């Protein structure tokens, strides 16, 4: 099982009646990569996954798996396999028959499909439970049966719809590591739908952040986190302050924006037209407290709230026309000289910790 296929989604839309769930998205998922489709409820990630699987028709556009256009092929002929959120196991069948089910549908004769199912159960370390029914297993074991059942068809790509959501937090983290290990050892393309940025960061080679049926950014976890393309991505990934204003200056290094009724802020790495609405992002953990701000790279604000988090402390500040500006500092730094609500504190950051965010048309 070493074959893997690139998935090429070209200008694909999904329209349900009057609702456009997916707006002409284009995306190439490299062969053998772990891709997470990430976004809030209703952003179109499940529709996208189901169109790749063939469980949902494609309203317009094309999907290729490797060199094959699969747009109009039924699920079983695409070379993909899907693992459902609820696992969709048959309660009255034992594990061998659950796992062998799709081979039975394909007309594979009994001995061969039992042998393949047992091999698959062995791969998932479920061999001792082969004669049990799903209800006699733990949540994590049921998930492994669902994986075995999807993988028995020897797919080029495995599609997973919120595969960890039914598990308790402890098991979720353990199964997450197992999924990653499995993907690495099989070498096939995984596409995994999740609304958890932490899960996507932990697993993915490519994170595709979706919002309102569109792709806001598709890049490595590090790029998505350190260089969010849009205000939506910066907010959704968390740990960024988004400052919105209008561009008042531009130069080769970037732009300066002015916040409505407030201060001016510089950011690198972006372009803008004078007078245009613009957003910049500043990492919450890159802001320094009590160092005097120099032009455009900080401001003095009033502390609104202080939250102790153990190894760090979260401080929320208002000032210069910016509300709820969040600063995360280490517990050591905080307790050396604590601040409290009502205190005025200067904040500053380095030029390369403020980046210009793009806007996409909705
Ligand atoms: N069968 C359907 N008929 C009509 N509208 C649908 C159908 N399925 C999904 N939608 C709508 O399409 C949009 C995208 O749904 P989709 O399930 O793809 O989102 P999602 O990002 O996977 O959300 P969730 O995380 O809640 O599953 C939503 O507005 C949803 O209400």
Automatic annotation (TrEMBL):
Principal subcellular localization: membrane
Pfam families referenced in this protein's UniProt entry, alphabetically: ABC_tran (PF00005), TOBE_2 (PF08402)
Annotated GO MF terms: ABC-type transporter activity; ATP binding; ATP hydrolysis activity
Localization of this protein: Cell inner membrane
Topological category with respect to the lipid bilayer: Peripheral membrane protein
One Gene Ontology CC term in the entry: ATP-binding cassette (ABC) transporter complex
UniProt superkingdom: Bacteria
Keyword list, A-Z: ATP-binding, Nucleotide-binding, Transport
Record domain ABC transporter: where: 7-237
InterPro entries per the UniProt record, alphabetical: AAA+_ATPase, ABC_SmlMolc_Importer, ABC_transporter-like_ATP-bd, ABC_transporter-like_CS, Mo/tungstate-bd_C_term_dom, P-loop_NTPase, Transp-assoc_OB_typ2
Similarity annotation: Belongs to the ABC transporter superfamily.
Stated name of the protein: Putative spermidine/putrescine transport system ATP-binding protein
Protein source organism: Allorhizobium borbori
């Amino acid at each position: 099982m070493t074959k893997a296929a690139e998935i090429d989604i070209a200008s694909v839309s999904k329209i349900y009646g009057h609702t456009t769930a997916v707006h002409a998205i284009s995306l190439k998922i490299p062969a053998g990569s772990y891709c997470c489709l990430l976004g809030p409820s209703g952003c179109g990630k499940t529709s996208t996954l189901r169109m790749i699987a063939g469980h949902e028709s494609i309203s317009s556009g094309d999907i290729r798996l490797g060199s094959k256009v699969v747009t109009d092929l039924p699920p079983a002929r695409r070379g993909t396999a899907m693992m459902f959120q609820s696992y969709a196991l048959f309660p009255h069948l034992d594990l061998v028959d659950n796992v062998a089910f799709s081979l039975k549908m394909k007309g594979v004769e009994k001995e061969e499909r039992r042998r393949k199912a047992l091999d698959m159960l062995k791969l998932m370390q479920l061999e001792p439970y082969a004669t049990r029914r799903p209800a006699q297993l733990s949540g994590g074991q049921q998930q492994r049966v669902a994986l075995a059942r999807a993988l028995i068809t020897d797919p080029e790509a495995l599609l997973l719809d919120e595969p960890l959501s039914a598990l308790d937090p402890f098991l979720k983290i353990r199964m997450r590591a197992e999924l990653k290990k499995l993907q690495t050892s099989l070498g096939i393309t995984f596409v995994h739908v999740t609304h958890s940025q932490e899960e996507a960061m932990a697993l993915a080679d490519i994170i595709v952040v979706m919002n309102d049926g569109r792709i806001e950014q598709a890049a490595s976890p590090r790029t998505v986190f350190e260089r969010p393309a849009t205000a939506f991505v910066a907010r959704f990934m968390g740990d960024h302050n988004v400052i919105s204003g209008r561009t008042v200056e531009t130069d080769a290094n970037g732009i300066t924006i002015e916040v409505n009724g407030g201060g001016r802020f510089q950011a690198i790495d972006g372009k803008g037209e004078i007078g245009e609405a613009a957003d910049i992002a500043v990492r919450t953990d890159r802001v320094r407290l009590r160092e005097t701000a120099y032009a455009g790279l900080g401001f003095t604000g009033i502390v609104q709230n202080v939250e102790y988090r153990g190894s760090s402390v979260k401080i929320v500040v208002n000032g210069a026309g910016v509300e709820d500006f969040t600063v995360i500092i280490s517990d050591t730094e905080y307790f050396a000289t604590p601040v409290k609500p009502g205190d005025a504190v200067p904040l500053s950051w380095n030029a390369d910790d403020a980046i210009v965010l793009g806007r996409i048309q909705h």
